[in-house]
Each structure stands twice: as structure tokens, then as C-alpha cells.
Write a structure and sequence with these properties.
With 90 residues, the chain is α+β, with helices and mostly antiparallel strands. The chain is 32% helix and 11% strand. The protein is built from four helices and two strands; from the N terminus they run αααββα. Strands 1-2 form a two-stranded antiparallel sheet. The radius of gyration is 15 Å and the shape is globular. It starts with a helix and ends in a 15-residue tail after the last helix.
């Protein structure tokens, strides 16, 4: 099942909308750890990442992984964040 089919089944229009549901919030609390599943580092910023959307709305533990920001950005083909420690507006 692709993500669009899963969202339609749930009556949602976007993943952004899904990520605001109580179901997703509970998964984040349940699955979130102190270290990245890929590199094993203790990262300040962690994300719960879908490895598959097959069971969107009823995810199994193996459908998700906790990723540190560098690994999560790399997974999505994004460059590393720059300017860590800088305050907004500077």
C-alpha cells in the first residue's frame, strides 16, 4: 500500500496531517529512544521515521526507526544542518 492509499483510508489529506494525530504522538512517545538506530549516537534531535507506509495508522515496530537528525536528513537526501548553536535572527 502506498502512502496515499493509507491516508485516504484514514480520511487524511497529508502526512503532515497524520503526524498531528494522537495516534502518531503516542507512537513517538512509545518508540523514541535516546540513540539513533542507524549510527548508535546519542543525538539531540531525534525523529521517528517510517521505513514503510504499508500499515499507516497501525504501524508495527518494524515499520519505524528512531533516527538522529544527521541520519534522518541523509535518508531524505538533505544536506547536514549548518550553524548549530546560533540563535535565531543572527
Amino acid at each position: 500500500m502506498n502512502v496515499r492509499v493509507g491516508l485516504k483510508r484514514l480520511g487524511l489529506k497529508s502526512l503532515r496531517e497524520y503526524y498531528k494525530t494522537p495516534h502518531w504522538a503516542a507512537l513517538v512517545r512509545e518508540m523514541r529512544k535516546k540513540r539513533c538506530d542507524r549510527c548508535g549516537r546519542a543525538c539531540g534531535r531525534l525523529a521517528l521515521h517510517h521505513k514503510t507506509y504499508l500499515r499507516l495508522g497501525a504501524e508495527a515496530p518494524e515499520d519505524l526507526e528512531t533516527l538522529g537528525d544527521p541520519c534522518h536528513r541523509a535518508e531524505h537526501g538533505l544536506p547536514p544542518r549548518r550553524g548549530r548553536g546560533r540563535k535565531k535572527g543572527r
